[in-house]
Sequence to fold (333 residues):
Amino acid sequence: MNPQTPHSPDVELLTRLGFAPGNPLMTEPRVLVDRSFLSRLRTELDETLDADTAHRVRSQIGLFHGLREGRRAVSRARDDVVGGVVSRPDTPSIAMTLLARGGCDGLEIHGEWPHSAEARATDHGGARNCVLAAGYTSGWLSEICGSTLVAVETECRAQGQARCAFVARPAEEWRARHDAEVEQFVDSLPFETFRTLLRENSARGLGLGAEGHSPLGATPWTAHVWGPVMVLPFQSSVTALRDLENDCGIRVVVVDLRTAYTNGLEEKSLRASLEKFLDHVSSWGVESVLAAPPPAVESLLPELRNGPHVARPTLPEAISTAFQIAHANRSGA
Fold:
């Protein structure tokens, strides 16, 4: 675990599952609304963990994203006030409509998620479907209001209802209602642990806080393993790859090309570097999916040896495809 990561069972579990705070899955907002990814996420967690723990992990993934984005929105609004600038306000990655009653202290906020990607991603009913959205909304509203608000889902399309709706109240008010299921959800959200993590990493300039930069820019060589899938940033050299071994049951490697260094490299050199990189990954006996290739790389894909190569325009789409391939290979084994 990184030295800046607070010691916490919740953070340790997320890290073990591949959701460490610096993981692209915890900094890329599109994972929150990608229906295919959300479906695979639920399936993998349900197969790996018991129901309560899977529910807890999904809500915490949402909470971290919500706190991070809410923190960024507040910071940018504060900077606008100081600088006398009026800019377009940040909007949450998970769209929501809100109706506030009272103020941010001792109140309730009613709302709904009009697009409900999480509900559409599930093929079965039951309680607590939009828990990632509930975690996200809890974090985002809490940062915007400067309080600790918990959003609890009250209606869900996955249960055959007309909409996905929620009510947000202060955490202590939910606890005072003595609803065991709601209390369990409130207790699953480590607000202070995540706030400390975001604050400390922001102070260190690691890109997890209000500035909103990807940590891959500060620490470009980080491999993330999540179940049968590894997310691996592309490097023009394969030196670091030699230290990695496929001893974790990896079936598919997502090659993250968002950080591909192409400036100053001639096309021939870039092609050779990418082929060498992919050949090394292939030597592990796994398949690869290329994520978010920039134009300079995308134009080379049809010419690469050992093709055709599977490529997807965004990292969430690539990860979702990787899980589909891993699941198909496991089913066919």
User: Anything to note?
Assistant: The first strand starts at residue 97 and ends at 101.
